[in-house]
Amino acid sequence: MKELIKVRDLNLHFKELHVLKSINMEIYDKTVTSVIGPSGCGKSTYLRCFNRMNDLKDAAIDGEIILDEENIYSRATDVTSLRMKVGMVFQKPNPFPKSIFENTAFGLKIQGKMKGSEIEGRVEQSLRDVWLWDEVKDRLKDSAMSLSGGQQQRLCMARALATNPEIILLDEPTSALDPRSTNKIEELCVELKKEVTILIVTHNIAQAARISDYTAFLYLGELVEYGETKLMFTVPKDKKTEEYISGKFG
Amino acid sequence: MKKRKILEFAGEWALKLSVGISLAFLFLFLFMIFSKGAGRLSISFLTQMPKNGMTEGGIFPAIIGTLSLTLLSMLIAFPLGVLSGIFLSEYGKPAWLVSIIKTSINTLSGTPSIVFGLFGLSVFVIGFNMGVSILSGSLTLAVLILPIIINATVESIKSVPFDFREAAFSLGATKRQVITRVILPAAAPGILTGSIISVGRAAGETAPILFTAATFYTRRLPKSVMDEVMAMPYHIYALMTEGTAPESQVPIAYGTAVVLLLLVLIINGTAILIRYRMRKRRNW
Q: Residue B206: what are its φ and ψ, rounded to 5°?
């Protein structure tokens, strides 16, 4: 397995609060890796380290995250191009109050490199990738707000995929969705990992077991255990992990 | 049990009575102005110069004066106000300083308008040597409506959900792109409504233009922004206080009031329409 990302001794503080504690781990190319742990363990904050979204919240970060041989926290990093390489989908579907087309094309348009016809092609491809094309192809000009919650979330995935990122970060993407939409997103993750590496935060342990190749268990800001999902869910090494995945706390 | 019923009944009627009295004042107001002034309205009233020492003729120069003052003050205050509002909401630091600035702006918008008139006189008319002119008056009005526009901008931007910003940043947008492509489109209805209402305010104010732009009587139209002008609110004031022939001038004053009222009504109506149409499109 090729290592795509290396996390080295990552620490994060919000003011006095030590949220992430010396995390080391590797994320493998074209896999689904899930991050699990009880509420408040820092898993969402951890996810946001990979596209530097914590910059918006004045977090103090030391350590390294190495992507494509470069530390994304080095001074030379251009945050906006990093975020085009590392897409993100949020807990609550958050399409812009614009048309379905404009939503999907947003990332391409702000790059300003592509012509209109190229953008159209890419929009169609992204919407096909998330199985939304057939549902929306006749109403691309309609507001994204007219879609159902599940469709909106898939639109957000298409929006993130449109710029051809290497990694997609999913922050509890199904917690606001009904079971059917949840299923669809899960199947989609398994399908999409042929093209893109997926890092997903979930509070749903069963979901992690269903879709991920690797699982990281985070507890009180520490990476307690990390390894292949199959192994971790059958023979967890750490007692805390065992208790958490068997539902003893959370 | 009985006492509660009486209180219920009395409470409801106190509310109804209050609304009734308020509405009565409103209708009385409209009735008085329109009954005294509507009779003057005609095409020639709107398009002719005043004649015979303002005892006859129309109010064309006053309409032109009010329109040019309003338009120019908007051209100055709108970009300035919106850009300041964006800075205060998105860039301003530290937070305590921004909040002091916002409070000052709020206080400024509560200042009596005659004070703005004095300010305009000393700064624009005398200080910058612009004389009594459309430019001085417009600048004074611009200072008056600036806080309204800044406030409208700050409040509208505040109401844009954080989700949109986050989504835009996560797609690699720069701060400028987040503002121009996501925040401003979403905040536009609020900014526009607030600004259009300030247009109505600018059109109707008398005190700020009293010393800075308005003239009692002129037979010609302004040739440049450095000319003084007649303006509707001041025209009313002048006719009612300094007129020499009240029996023919008072009706002209009421006629002018009706025109001014209709103008403000049209402006505010436009604002409501814009807000309604844009709100229908947005649904978050």
A: -105, -50
Task: Please determine, for the modelled complex, whether the ipTM score is greater than 0.95.
Answer: no
Q: Do A110 and B171 touch (CB under 8 A)?
A: yes
Q: What are the tens digits of pLDDT across the range B185-197?
A: 999 988 998 898 8
CB contacts, 8 Å: A92 with chain B: 163
Report domain extents, chain A.
3-245
Q: What CATH superfamily classification does A3-245 receive?
A: P-loop containing nucleotide triphosphate hydrolases (3.40.50.300)
DSSP per-residue codes, A120-156: HHHHHHHHHHTT-HHHHGGGTTSBGGGS-HHHHHHHH
Instruction: State the nearest Cα–Cα gap between A243 and chain B, in angstroms.
Output: 34
Instruction: Name the token pair of B55.
Output: 């005892």
pLDDT in tens, A87-100: 999 999 999 999 99
What is the secondary structure of B53-119 as a DSSP string?
A: TTTEE--HHHHHHHHHHHHHHHHHHHHHHHHHHHIIIII--SHHHHHHHHHHHHHHHTS-HHHHHHH
Give the global pTM: 0.84
CA distance A139 to A133: 10
Residues of B in contact with A84 (CB under 8 A): 171-172
Indicate the residue of B163, B170, B177 with minimum beta-carbon distance to A53. Answer: B170
